[in-house]
Write a structure and sequence with these properties.
With about 350 residues, this protein is mainly beta. The protein has 1 helix and 28 strands.
Length: about 350
């Protein structure tokens, strides 16, 4: 799918009901969300997928220096993620592959190229065991087990319907799939991914896009068609949402949480990012950040609280310091349709 048709298709969905997400939900981006972990050292690394010129750029903190360009095996990159060992995984929409790049040799040839079961991959995540999960444009979700990435995948299909916007894995290894075609999120138990879902969430959902889990296991879902973000309590995912966030939300696509539990929402078509304080999610946004084009594709937050925004339309990434989100950002320019971001360490 050409970049222009990708944007057009998303905008078409937006016009039907308000808009689309789509991770990269995404499409999920993937949930494609990389949750923050421990303290980020000076060597913190940002990866930017450039859909327009089929490259991935690597930047080291403070992100103002020249990039290392990764191009071997890259073809129309959508989401990307980094596993617990620091290896980079890229979902190549252009040639239906997933490529892995080894930490310390990102610019080298791919260590692994996966094609079995890959069909225009839209979302990619990894778990704590470095298993890889991929949602494809043809409606399939596959798990690739560490140590046998190029072998036959574990197919996840029960309850899956239009999964190309968001995936997430919780601390127990359970998998969550955002199904935009039937407005559900399905949960699968670790070790039984190919079985029936252990939970099917539908209350409050309307064209769900990206997913993110907080440190307590609460689930947040961006709903593209009714411009809300809904929160579900761990242990009661199928109950009513414990929070429905709508103030300042307009066609939410990417969502992210910082280490304090503050929620950030990318409003896809109006070009803003809104921040909601933990414990006060349903109130007016604590911060509204402007200055982006439409089609914000991805957000990322590191453990220092720096916010990274992929400004797709302007081919930039903007970086905001915690406490100064409405201030002047650091801008990485000269990119080519930056679709997705990943941070390492998380």
């Amino acid at each position: 799918m050409a970049a222009s048709s990708m944007v057009a298709s998303r905008l078409g969905i937006a016009l039907v009901v308000l808009a689309l997400l789509s991770l990269g939900a995404c499409k999920s981006v993937g949930t494609a969300f990389n949750p923050p972990g421990g303290e980020v050292p000076a060597s913190n690394t940002l990866f930017v997928a450039n859909y327009g010129n089929s490259t991935v750029n690597e930047y080291r903190a403070p992100f103002t220096g020249a990039a290392t360009t990764i191009s071997n095996g890259i073809n129309g990159p959508y989401p990307l993620t980094v596993d617990s060992s620091g290896n980079l995984w890229v979902a190549n929409y252009g040639n239906s592959t997933v490529t892995e790049y080894t930490k310390g040799n990102y610019a080298g040839a791919p260590a692994v190229t996966i094609s079995n079961g890959i069909n225009n991959p839209d979302v990619i995540i990894t778990d704590s065991s470095s298993d890889v999960f991929v949602a494809n444009d043809n409606g399939s979700v596959n798990e690739y087990v560490a140590g046998n990435y190029t072998g036959a995948p574990v197919a996840i299909s029960n309850g899956v319907d239009g999964p190309d916007f968001g995936l997430a894995v919780d601390s127990s290894g359970d998998l969550f799939v955002s199904n935009h075609s039937n407005s559900t999120v399905t949960e699968y138990a670790k070790g039984s991914y190919s079985g029936a879902p252990i939970a099917t969430i539908s209350n409050g959902l309307n064209d769900p896009a990206q997913l993110v889990l907080d440190s307590s296991g609460d689930l947040f879902v961006a709903n593209a068609n009714n411009s809300t973000v809904t929160e579900y309590a761990r242990g009661n995912y199928t109950g009513a949402p414990i929070a429905t966030i709508s103030n300042g939300v307009d066609d939410p696509y990417a969502i992210a949480l910082d280490t304090s539990g503050d929620l950030f929402v990318a409003n896809y078509t109006i070009g803003t990012v809104t921040e909601y304080t933990k414990g006060n999610y349903t109130s007016a946004p604590a911060t509204t950040i402007t200055g982006f084009g439409s089609y914000i594709q991805s957000l990322a937050i590191d453990s220092k609280g720096r916010l990274f925004v992929a400004d797709y339309e302007n081919s930039e990434v903007k970086i905001y310091t915690k406490g100064s989100y409405t201030g002047t950002p650091t801008v990485i320019s000269g990119l080519s349709e930056p679709y997705y971001l990943a941070i390492y360490p998380r």
